[in-house]
Amino acid sequence: MPLMDHLSELRRRLTIIIVSLFLTAVVVYFATPSLIDILMDPIMKVLPEGTELTVLTILGGFTIRIKVAFFFGAIMCTPIIIWEIMGFFLPALKPNERRWVIPTVAAMVALFYIGMAFAYAVAQSAAFGWLADQIIDFANLIADAEDYLNIMMLLEIGFGIAFELPLVIFYLSILHIVPYSTFRKNWRYIYVALLAICGVVTPDGSPVTMLIMFAMMLALYEISLAVARFVITRRDGKAALKWSREEYAEHAE
For helices 32-44 and 124-133, what crossing angle results, to 10°? Predict the structure, then answer.
């Protein structure tokens, strides 16, 4: 496709994403009080008894509801967003690669939702409980609604994106863009890099959240490599675990 056709296609797909997100957020806005209660439910059990959300400015309530509406709108539109992104790259794929598009989109959506569910059920209560413990011995805790919800939404998105790691590792390995043996040989450096990434992307800055995310990313990394090893050895033989991209292309011919 010529450059202008690519740009036109990109504009069309971005328009679909933006319109879908906006319309969903408008509908969701009216349900935001109930949705905020759902978001807060896991952490209310670990906060000091009697803690209630506080809005500190007159515009704060409207701002919070807009943020929450777009947050849940993005969650609901995740399949559309991922499908449109993958659809933009579809013309660049070979015919034998296109059959992987639908399973890949399904896996990406599922992993994103699983990551968000894990953050909601495990990470949030552990993080907020630890942070609250650092305060109650010397001060009263005022629950600023905007501060709490910003952290919670960022945690949800962060874990959702982090749970895409297995898919990235899997495709890098089975397509021999990065040989499987390279991942195995350099595991120490990869572990340190994952720990550094967790320290950067966790929004609350607590070691509890960072270690929870690090533990999950390590588990996902090892699982993805195990699956990739199984696929590579079944498809190309054990020797293929050391193949580079060029060697893989030669054998494919």
Answer: 60
